[in-house]
Amino acid sequence: MKKNKTLILGGxxxxxxxxxxxxxxxxGKVRVLCRPSYSLGRLEPYxxxxxxxxxxxxxDSLLRKCVxxxxxxxxxxxxxFPSTTQDSAVYDINTNLVPTIRLVExxxxxxxxxxxxxxxxxxxxxxxxxxxxxxxxxLNPISLYGQTKGAIESYLRFYSRVTSxxxxxxxxxxxxxxxxxxxxxxxxxxxxxxxxLQNKELSVYGDMKTVRxxxxxxxxxxxLVRISESKGPDVxxxxxxxxxxxxxxxxIIEKVSKRKVLLKKIPKRVQDVKSNILNPELAWxxxxxxxxxxxxxxxxxxxxxxxxxxxxxx
Length: 314
Hints:
Blueprint: E1 6-9, H1 14-25, E2 30-34, E3 50-54, H2 60-66, E4 72-75, H3 89-109, E5 114-120, H4 144-162, E6 166-172, E7 174-176, H5 188-198, E8 201-205, E9 211-216, H6 217-228, E10 235-238, E11 243-245, H7 246-257, E12 262-266, E13 275-276, H8 281-287, H9 295-309
Parallel strand pairs: 1-2, 1-4, 2-3, 4-5, 5-6, 6-10, 7-9, 8-12, 9-13
Antiparallel strand pairs: 9-11
Helix pairs in contact: 1-6, 3-4, 5-7, 5-9, 7-9
């Protein structure tokens, strides 16, 4: 198997696609693991600069081959989401926690230097009020998804303490931007935009006062690359530090698109926290990273991308 410096687990996902784009445009080559799906077509522009491995993250022997000759691993895979995990804790543990521990063991055997894990700033802290949440805040998830993310972090930090593996855990808030699939279990911005483009009704949970911290994907990718190459804390929030309600997000998208969203209200989900705003100060102090793309500017970039690319989305 051809050796590469960087392995990306989950290359056809929203963050993975944008990370591949960044690395390839900078002249790098990557090895990518992803499952067979229609989404593989989205990797076509990068095929000459990447080694594609099609298979399952749960396959131990395949994972061993994936880390061979690799210096850095980006772990972006999750098999569950907050809205799908409430009654499947065992499945979540078996398909996310256990394979991640196996990944660490293979990284240690293969002498991988750095493992970067994309955690969830949106679910791991739980209900903490309206103030910016720092990395020192006690974790209090109200979903099994967030609980498992916390358990994964705990194991990763353990291995970081007792082995030579350099672990970086990025607690990412709510990313949005080009390449995000609409109508999935995550991604308010993408879904609102696609509803506008297709003249569909948008289903929104609760009273639309739920507050989240949104961050443009370019800023997320910059954080993933920069922090992976620098010394500093092993856990860091990646966020804009600014909270916006669902209603505010919709209003800004309507302003940019000059179109009106058709709304359908449905009951609030029990696993949704009322407000989640992360404090990104540690990322600035330790890594000189901060979110640079203003929300309205990011929405405009995203809207323009969807106008050109939406018909080809899978």
